[in-house]
């Protein structure tokens, strides 16, 4: 599939296919030309012999209720998609901290880096330490749910409550799908386009129903594929895919002791490596209507809110239902 773009208007079309977006434009590795909804701050990390910058937003309420909530993004996303959530939480008095993990969004994209959920959790803690925040509520979506789980297990004294919104990692993908090397994953990432990203999201996130509110989050990652920096972004994507596949958290849910809420869109079918699994196993992967219940049973005292006929992003697809469940749990 080939693309052409109007360099003035920023319009992109698919040759022989459908119109994609009038907004998509090339974006560099750290989204320099993309404006986030709130002021972006940075901490400098010396990590694994790398000098790194980790971006975050710190949304302060006009009238504080004394509580902080940490919002952790998914793999195909960044902190910007929490805009509405942060606005409404701030209006309720919460301080909202929204990191871009290393390798994502506006943060550094290192070439030589051993990605692990423990490392991402430690990097996240560094932001809280910089802001002198001792305790926080933690909300993780998708891959952010795996980061949130590891953060909670490593630093339980810092976590008041945990919310997992359609987290990946509710099952061990190694037990279904064959391994791919990082080099193989990188070659696969290099083939991504706006079209492949949209097709993936339609298949696993949205059940072949596209809405205008999904477009901005597609345009962000599609814009990367149009920029000369994309190999750098693709390499980090390959490294983090390897992390997800090789570092399951599902065996440790039983060790979580903080109050926990699962918000699960039951139509979600997201599963890492599904295309590499035997055909007879593929239909068994990413069955969130079952995985939510199974995970609730593993986390003592946890609560489960299932949202029927909703996919991978409740906070985008059915925001009012998502926020009601969230706020009822944390108020």
UniProtKB/TrEMBL annotation:
GO BP terms, alphabetized: acylglycerol catabolic process
GO function terms (MF aspect): monoacylglycerol lipase activity
SUPFAM superfamilies: alpha/beta-Hydrolases (SSF53474)
Signal peptide bounds: none
Entry-linked Pfam families: Abhydrolase_1
Location of the AB hydrolase-1 domain: 68-316
Keyword Hydrolase found: yes
Domain of life: Bacteria
Name of the featured protein: Alpha/beta hydrolase
């Amino acid at each position: 599939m080939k693309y052409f773009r109007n360099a003035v208007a920023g319009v992109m079309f698919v040759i022989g296919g459908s119109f994609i977006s009038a907004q998509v434009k090339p974006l560099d590795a750290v989204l320099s030309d993309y404006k986030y909804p709130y002021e972006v701050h940075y901490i400098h990390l010396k990590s694994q012999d790398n000098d790194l910058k980790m971006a975050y937003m710190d949304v302060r309420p006009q009238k504080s209720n004394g509580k902080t909530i940490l919002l952790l993004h998914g793999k195909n996303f960044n902190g910007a998609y929490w805009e509405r959530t942060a606005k409404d939480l701030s209006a309720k008095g919460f301080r909202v901290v929204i990191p871009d993990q290393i390798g994502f969004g506006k943060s550094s994209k290192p070439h030589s880096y051993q990605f692990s959920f423990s490392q991402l959790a430690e990097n996240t803690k560094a932001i809280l330490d910089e802001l002198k925040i001792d305790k926080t509520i933690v909300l993780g979506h998708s891959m952010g749910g795996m980061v949130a789980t590891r953060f909670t297990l490593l630093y339980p004294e810092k976590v008041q409550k945990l919310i997992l919104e359609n987290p990946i990692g509710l099952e061990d993908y190694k037990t279904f799908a064959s391994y791919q090397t990082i080099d193989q994953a990188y070659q696969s990432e290099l083939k991504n386009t706006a079209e492949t990203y949209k097709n993936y999201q339609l298949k696993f996130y949205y059940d072949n129903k596209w809405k205008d509110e999904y477009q901005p989050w597609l345009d962000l990652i599609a814009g990367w594929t149009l920029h000369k920096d994309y190999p750098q972004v693709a390499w980090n994507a390959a490294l983090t895919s390897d992390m997800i596949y090789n570092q399951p958290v599902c065996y440790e849910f039983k060790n979580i002791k903080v109050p926990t809420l699962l918000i699960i869109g039951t139509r979600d079918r997201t599963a890492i490596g599904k295309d590499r699994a035997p055909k007879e196993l593929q239909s068994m992967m990413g069955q969130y209507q079952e995985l939510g219940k199974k995970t609730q049973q593993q986390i003592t005292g946890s609560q489960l809110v299932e949202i029927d006929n909703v996919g991978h992003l409740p906070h985008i697809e059915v925001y009012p239902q998502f926020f009601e469940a969230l706020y009822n749990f944390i108020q």
